Amino acid sequence: xxxxxxxxxxxxxxxxxxxxxxxxxxxxxxxxxxxxxxxxxxxxxxxxxxxxxxxxxxxxxxxxxxxxxxxxxxxxxxxxxxxxxxxxxxxxxxxxxxxxxxxxxxxxxxxxxxxxxxxxxxxxxxxxxxxxxxxxxxxxxxxxxxxxxxxxxxxxxxxxxxxxxxxxxxxxxxxxxxxxxxxxxxxxxxxxxxxxxxxxxxxxxxxxxxxxxxxxxxxxxxxxxxxxxxxxxxxxxxxxxxxx
Amino acid sequence: xxxxxxxxxxxxxxxxxxxxxxxxxxxxxxxxxxxxxxxxxxxxxxxxxxxxxxxxxxxxxxxxxxxxxxxxxxxxxxxxxxxxxxxxxxxxxxxxxxxxxxxxxxxxxxxxxxxxxxxxxxxxxxxxxxxxxxxxxxxxxxxxxxxxxxxxxxxxxxxxxxxxxxxxxxxxxxxxxxxxxxxxxxxxxxxxxxxxxxxxxxxxxxxxxxxxxxxxxxxxxxxxxxxxxxxxxxxxxxxxxxxxxxxxxxxxxxxxxxxxxxxxxxxxxxxxxxxxxxxxxxxxxxxxxxxxxxxxxxxxxxxxxxxxxxxxxxxxxxxxxxxxxxxxxxxxxxxxxxxxxxxxxxxxxxxxxxxxxxxxxxxxxxxxxxxxxxxxxxxxx
Lengths: 244, 381
Hints:
The structure holds 2 protein chains of 2 kinds. Chain A is of the alpha/beta class. Chain A is 37% helix and 25% strand.
């Protein structure tokens, strides 16, 4: 097992955001965490990447307990993240953003840069453009490409479909599949359950800080429990609207 | 509405002209740049001449105000720029480090009688240490919260100095020694190493030397891995951390470097001033230096220097208008914020950050939309 999250609890002040979540990710898999707003998906991911501390439980990565390791060292250990809301450096060019992704590494990145530009030809066209001036989809591509520059063993993706047009979502998801095919394990957090379940091998359904169901992704596609996790609002992008 | 358009138009033309000059500079070959640098230094050394002074400051002694406030503000602004402009940490108590440097010079100089140069080194070390002391507990805070804590730190230093009788209390310290002189060295009729009471020029030359060293160091840091890490922290701290940047350590480093520069200036200033007291280190000075950095173009060294010069010089230039000069000063600041909201000479990177909405203003704490952006971009953050 490459990444194992064991019964973690996370608090924002006194409020418990995560009340005992356990997730396992095997090498070569795409695993997805789905659930409605406030289910604790992003918090789980932030805890794994080290941006949030945990109250109890542990995170084991590659045989090593990383629960107390600061975030920047987890990158060296092999966890790469494209953060929520993309987190592209707005003032840096596409090229500089990608180089920031390789911050922990030394040596020649030409081959890695070429690979990212090959995966995302759009980024190659925009090489000298400032990150902040690009469209949402392009920024998402940049965030993923930048995370790949660190040569991660596990790629953590936080809602890559957020705010994107359906066509762009398709495109991003097919690239995620390609990245996985080339040997990178992916842990994907998504609100867009339909899309995520089609892509992933296994899935965990989160609801108010707990795992309510885990199963192979294909089995969950028509599962009523998944619909229940979205407060009975049906699947996919209708769900948040139904809440509103 | 029409008026707003013409204003917008003027702003754009101004910024396009600035881009043109910038592009030209980027294409300039290395040797030509060195000539420009050399000319700038020579220009700085020639500044305190009478003929320039009669226009620049008809009401006060030009050489004196070149040292304080102008030169002092410039060096302080360069120091604060490391913290605010490069690492994006809003520091409202920068004067504290200037005070620590000043008091280091005053106390060690009068009590232990050490040499100025030795005190300069010790003062820089002390300030770096106080920067780390302030940073260690507070740099876990972000934005506005950090600003409030640093503001408090600035006041604590001043009030502690005022209430501690063993370091002079409200009267401060008198009879601070000057740097060691070499009265025999004479160049163009000026005794350039004679640090006395009457002639401010030797101090000014010393300040220019300090500024040049500081500029070279800061520029080198900016271009290094450290500078890239600072830029990443400024633009998105969480993203920087997940890129593998040890954000906390680099923020501490920015604080320590900024503090050291402020402290070095404090030592030099106290060595000229003869006496210092806690009221020399008011909050207003922190605010003024911050205004200089933001107005000049945070993150861009030439801009920051220009900003500090303008902020220091304008009130002196219009001293003849007595209290109305502050009115003019305020009007100029407002006009600048209308026509050049990103600063007099902004860096291109900062401009892109500002346009993105929250990125650039993250440096100033609040998530406020930039001049060109709209509310929803910020809301989506």
